Amino acid sequence: MVAEKVGCAVPVPLLMLAEKEGNEETREFFDLTKGVTYTVNFPELVGKRCLGVGIPGWLFTVDVKGNMNLFHLNSRSLIQLPHVETLQGFDYDYHDDYEYYVEKALLSSDPHTTDDYILMINQGDPNSLAYWKPTMKTFTTVTHGRAYADVTWHDGQFYGVDFEGNVIIFDFRGGLEPTSGKIVQGVPSEFINSMQLYIVHSAGELFVITRDGIYRHPETNSYGAKEFIVAKVDVDNECYEEVDDLGNRSLFLGYSASLAVEQYGCRANHIYFTDDCICAFRFTEKGGGKDMGAYNLFEETIEPFYTDESYHKFSPPIWIFNTPFSV
Question: Which helix (H) or strand (E) holds 280?
């Protein structure tokens, strides 16, 4: 997604803050371009894990009972999805927390403008991809036996990246419904080195990004990103090159869909990231939300963009793109 300069109808990057105990119906949204926080009443989101899906205004939600939906922040439209237990690979004896099971969700297009859209999700364990269309009763799982870190969409195709650095392309053009994809070499395994991976398509270029610090240190019990590495992948020639200059673009990474943005109000050549360390959410007292910042890709430095605290056990701060709310 490459947005234009900020105007009254142009979506801007908003940090949707974590649900607050004792004030669950009210959600706060920090406007990165203006430095202001909007407070909006959303009883529909109480007790739900929310993920940004890459289309302005839309969220993927799942509650502690396994009910999944798509929700639109402005119109408050609700699209019911199949239950978590219908997902192939889900085992309640092993996955006893519904709200943690889906780690990423991505829409191909806006459900308000077309019925021909696709929702792709990444199931947290075994990190498989599954997709759903409005005409389907259940999700369809693709490419068994491969663990995916992230997925992006461009021009009728989903591009997934697995934990070995391979890029897998799923072609939905012409009404196709693939259950397997074309595998190409993305980045080598030594490039990954136990890091978190993301994949972004922007302006005809495909990027795979690594992030360190996602695991708690065994001695200090701390975690946090210190370095990001960006590789531009050539899927035709199956090669890559490291880059430290994204031009006017910024990357937005975390539990929401990974996006590239060219927009006034964002620092160019920066990676804006939110906390996606699953260990922090499940096994620390406050939950996740600590590890956020803006990484200068050229200078390799990190600066904060939000200085207050925002923690939660399963619904952390996430990036969404939406028209600014009224103050």
Answer: helix 278-283
SS3 call for 175: helix
Tell me: pLDDT of 209 over 90.
yes
**Residue 1 — pLDDT band, cuts 50, 70, 90?**
very low
- Could you tell me which CATH number the domain at 12-322 has? 2.120.10.30
- Is residue 324 within 8 A of residue 36, CB to CB? The reply is no
- Measured distance CA(11)–CA(54) in Å, rounded: 11
The pLDDT value given to residue 218: 60
Cα distance between residue 208 and residue 205, in whole Å: 10
Model pLDDT, residue 283:
63
302 phi, psi to nearest 5 deg:
-125, 135
CA distances from 72 to 44, 49, 61, 321, 323 (A): 10, 14, 10, 11, 12
In this structure, are strands 129-132 and 119-123 parallel, antiparallel, or unpaired? antiparallel
Rounded to whole angstroms, the Cα distance separating 176 from 169 reads 13
- Nearest 5°: the CA angle 254, 193, 99 is 35
How far out from the chain centre does Cα 118 lie? 16
Neighbours of 301 (CB within 10 A): 11
Contact assessment for residue 84 and residue 94, using Cβ atoms and an 8 Å cutoff: no
Tens-digit pLDDT profile for residues 153-198: 999 999 999 999 999 999 999 888 888 889 998 998 888 877 899 9
Q: Which of 32-35's residues contact partners 24+ apart within 8 Å by CB, and which partners?
A: 32/265, 32/266, 32/272, 32/305, 33/6, 33/263, 33/264, 33/265, 33/266, 34/265, 34/324
What are the domain boundaries of the chain? 12-322
CA gap 70, 284 in Å, rounded: 29
